[in-house]
Give the backbone structure.
Amino acid sequence: RQQASSTTTDASASINYDHDRDPFCLSSEDAKELSTRLQVTELVIKSNADRLSSICYLLLGVHQLFR
């Protein structure tokens, strides 16, 4: 397992929680649970969630082009 640095940055404040407007978002509870289970900071979870969200939007855009 990869151990994250022990910085105390609170990433939960910048995670997108608006489930009505953004289908690719992560709840605060899920971010905390993932950070605990994976033993990484919430900043790592947030960074990866943001990366996955942008990939999902890219794939959705490509899908729309071929409809």
Notes: The chain is about 50% helix and 0% strand.
